């Protein structure tokens, strides 16, 4: 029997709803009275004082496992390069910046020299100004050209909110320069009547990689005047382009460079990130160009107090009687309530859209008990809102009308929200890079700030709040991406051929795997070779072959059966677990039951209902080894990396009570199996190692299964992935290895680089896994160590002590040095 742990590509990431009711068993700080929010210029309470107030409630102080104090830092000024236009310097000074920081001047110098540069300095360090100074200078120079359109620049952001925010900032900065600078947003929210104006007249176009992929590049003849004048491409928050998404964006940028060369331009790339490891290497891999690194942060920084917070145990019990901690969602709602009552401007980051809505609802209800005027000062912010709703919330947060916001990561990426006092992070966001991005949203005006990480009942969160050095003494993760993944590369070659026929000279641009793929695309009838090169042969749009966000496949539409109203969509890869017959589906606070999933027409018909339960899909998974690329001995066992095929089938679903998670029943499903060819790391143990670890045959399945769960939970500490990006299988006797084996695989076709990173950091990764299980206070296993929220086998069987002994024995044979260098970034 195989015990499996599935990635988001095959599993509904929501899982059962488990939120403590509004009548909480653990009260918030007593005797809280509303404090008038500080006026502009008025002194604010120190972050230490704010934290002391939060800890004043009953049992609150014991939840703080660690407090880190980051001292303030003075800044270092420089002068702008003499090639920056005086009008631009005057505009910057009018905005309140008398002199640049040293890193801003250095980055501008490189950009003016025609060198691609990545600015890798902290949050609120003025990265935008570092690239805007040379960009605005070049646009002004171009506006004076006697003929033609003049110079243009393109700005890419990972989210619409960030592009809109940056457009506002550029308009304000460039206002003294008149209409010689014409910024405009071009994305899915841009009205059709405005799009032609943007194409013909905008000099600084702000968009996202999705629109570049689907809209601009396929229609490049309509953008010809813009592309002929393109001098700079700005890539903001470049650390977000990782994994499959980053690999897609890397190929989109290569397509952009190819089209630009067709129009006679070779733009300079300016990249920015507050959290990037080896930034020059990562930027070079993303753009395909040599890139200069500017990482010596010369900006001042206010004091930051960073608290690690572990919710208390409750009286509830989960699977197999395991103790259950209070949810991070409920705890975050209480903290947001208390901070709002104190008049502390706060953003609470929540991982899911549903979680953000719940935190907002709970906080509003608690605030109404304190002061009826306070609930309107709190709101939720997430993807899926209408454009006008997002813009209204952003304005309210900028103005201070809102005191508290429960947000998804849509607000993480650089949205300039000056004046925030505190950030509450509901659960480790998956990487140190994201953690510091979110913490950096507070204190952006230079004042002191408070950040609180609230741990979820999860192996990684529990490990981190008790091992603060893993957060505060380690650099951010290296960016993992693989542009040569054939599942990523192939559709972009088709898209490129549809834009302009591919020639032999183009192949090197797209990477070494291109030459091998071209014959396959020809034999599949997608490309046809002629004298002028390879041509796209189909009538449909080649850009529609792939979703660069990694969803893949035709989205399944969720339709209300009685009205025919479209509620939304779900990725095809998640449909079997998210919208199977009988599934509970949440949409904008309303609950629906799926009456029928039509796989042929990609439609799920739902009806509004109020069931007292949630649903969780159950499935079976098997892994077969296709090819072993690398194999190294670990004592008598082996650590391997290579290609595998994963076969998964959803076979049933459980109905669980909303609060307790108690199983009410199981219903069989008849859904077809699906296969995934991907990359994996796996390890084997021998009978001698099992004897040494005192793991008998009755314990073996549970020990392997527990080690698999915990290792998946810990991998995000070593690779830039989320646990939903990866899957796993453990088998007491695998037919390909003929030994007890644990697999951890990338949950994306062709792989995403995560399993490869796991292979090269296996000693550190599995050591942390063993420790996370060993130090957990539970008796037989719980969500904080070996139980998984997405286990296809209902967390059966698990053997906590056997897993610790097994990993201890395995690690005795681990080589001192990593097996070869980690993958290049």
UniProtKB/TrEMBL annotation:
SMART domains in the cross-refs: DEXDc, HELICc
GO annotation, biological process: interstrand cross-link repair; nucleotide-excision repair
Domain Helicase C-terminal, chain residue ranges per copy: 335-487
Database matches in PROSITE patterns: HELICASE_ATP_BIND_1, HELICASE_CTER
A GO molecular-function annotation: ATP binding
Keyword Cell cycle: no
Record key words, sorted: ATP-binding, Helicase, Hydrolase, Nucleotide-binding
Chain positions covered by the region annotation Disordered: 29-51
Location of the Helicase ATP-binding domain: 108-294
Protein name: DEAD/DEAH box helicase
Species name: Streptomyces jumonjinensis
């Amino acid at each position: 029997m195989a015990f499996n742990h599935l990635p988001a590509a095959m599993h509904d990431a929501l899982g059962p709803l488990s939120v403590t009711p509004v009548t909480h068993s653990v009260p918030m700080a007593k005797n809280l009275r509303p404090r008038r929010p500080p006026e502009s210029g008025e002194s604010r309470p120190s972050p230490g004082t704010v934290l002391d107030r939060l800890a004043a409630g009953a049992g609150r102080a014991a939840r703080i496992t660690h407090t880190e104090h980051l001292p303030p830092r003075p800044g270092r000024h420089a002068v702008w390069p003499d090639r920056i236009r005086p009008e631009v310097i005057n505009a910057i000074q009018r905005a309140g910046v008398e002199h640049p920081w040293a890193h801003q001047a250095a980055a501008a110098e490189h950009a003016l020299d025609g060198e691609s540069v990545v600015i890798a300095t902290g949050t609120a360090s003025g990265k935008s100004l570092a690239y805007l100074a040379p960009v605005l200078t070049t646009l002004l120079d171009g506006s004076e050209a006697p003929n033609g359109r003049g110079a243009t620049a393109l700005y890419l952001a990972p989210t619409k909110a960030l592009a809109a925010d940056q457009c506002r900032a550029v308009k304000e900065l460039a206002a003294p320069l008149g209409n010689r600078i014409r910024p405009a947003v071009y994305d899915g929210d841009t009205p059709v009547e405005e799009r032609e104006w943007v194409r013909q007249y905008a000099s600084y176009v702000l968009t996202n990689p999705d629109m570049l992929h689907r809209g601009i590049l396929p229609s490049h003849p309509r953008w010809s005047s813009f592309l002929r004048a393109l001098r700079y491409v700005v890539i903001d928050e470049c650390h977000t382009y990782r994994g499959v998404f980053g690999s897609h964006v890397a190929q989109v940028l290569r397509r952009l460079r190819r089209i630009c060369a067709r129009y006679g331009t070779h733009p300079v790339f300016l990249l920015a990130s507050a959290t990037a490891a080896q930034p020059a290497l990562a930027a070079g891999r993303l753009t395909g160009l040599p890139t200069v690194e500017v990482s010596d942060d010369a900006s001042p920084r206010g004091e930051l107090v960073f608290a690690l917070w572990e919710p208390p145990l409750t009286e509830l019990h989960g699977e197999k009687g395991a103790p259950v901690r209070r949810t991070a969602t409920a705890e975050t709602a209480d903290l947001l309530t208390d901070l709002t009552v104190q008049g502390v401007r706060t953003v609470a980051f929540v991982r899911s859209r549903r979680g953000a809505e719940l935190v907002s609802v709970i906080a509003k209800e608690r605030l109404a008990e304190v002061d009826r005027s306070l609930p309107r000062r709190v709101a939720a912010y997430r993807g899926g809102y209408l454009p006008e709703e997002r813009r209204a919330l952003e304005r309210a947060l900028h103005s201070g009308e809102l005191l508290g916001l429960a947000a998804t990561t849509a607000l993480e990426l650089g949205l300039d929200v000056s004046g925030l006092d505190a950030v509450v992070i509901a659960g480790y966001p998956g990487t140190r890079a994201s953690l510091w991005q979110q913490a950096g949203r507070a204190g952006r005006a230079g004042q002191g700030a408070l950040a609180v990480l609230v741990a979820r009942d999860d192996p990684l969160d529990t490990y981190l709040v008790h091992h603060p050095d893993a957060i505060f003494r380690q650099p951010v993760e290296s960016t993992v991406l693989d542009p040569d993944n054939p599942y990523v590369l192939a559709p972009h070659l088709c898209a490129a051929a549809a834009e302009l026929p591919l020639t032999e000279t183009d192949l090197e641009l797209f990477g070494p795997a291109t030459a091998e793929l071209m014959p396959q695309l020809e034999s599949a009838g997608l490309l046809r070779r002629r004298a002028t090169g390879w041509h796209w042969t189909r009538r449909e749009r080649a850009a529609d072959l792939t979703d660069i966000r990694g969803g893949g496949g035709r989205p399944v539409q969720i339709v209300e059966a009685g009205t025919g109203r479209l509620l939304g969509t779900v990725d095809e890869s998640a449909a079997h677990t998210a919208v199977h017959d009988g599934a509970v589906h949440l949409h904008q606070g309303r609950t629906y039951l799926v009456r029928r999933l039509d796989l042929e027409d990609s439609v799920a018909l739902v009806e509004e209902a109020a069931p007292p339960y949630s649903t969780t899909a159950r499935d079976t998974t098997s892994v077969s080894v296709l090819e072993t690329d690398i194999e190294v001995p670990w004592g008598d066992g082996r650590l391997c990396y290579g290609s595998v095929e994963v076969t998964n089938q959803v076979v049933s679903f459980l109905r669980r009570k909303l609060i307790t998670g108690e199983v009410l029943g199981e219903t069989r499903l008849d859904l077809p199996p699906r296969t995934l060819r991907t990359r994996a790391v796996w390890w084997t143990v021998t009978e001698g190692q099992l004897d040494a670890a005192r793991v008998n045959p009755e314990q073996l399945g549970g020990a392997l299964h527990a080690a698999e769960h915990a290792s998946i939970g810990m991998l995000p500490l070593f690779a830039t992935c989320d646990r939903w990006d990866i899957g796993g299988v453990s088998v007491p006797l695998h037919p390909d290895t003929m030994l007890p084996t644990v697999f951890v695989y990338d949950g994306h076709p062709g792989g995403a680089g995560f399993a490869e990173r796991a292979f090269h950091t296996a000693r550190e990764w599995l050591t942390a896994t063993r420790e996370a299980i060993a130090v957990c206070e539970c008796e037989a296993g719980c969500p904080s160590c070996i139980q998984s929220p997405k286990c296809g086998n209902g967390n059966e069987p698990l053997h906590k002590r056997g897993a610790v002994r097994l990993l201890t024995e395995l690690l005795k044979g681990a080589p001192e040095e990593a097996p070869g260098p980690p993958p290049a970034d």
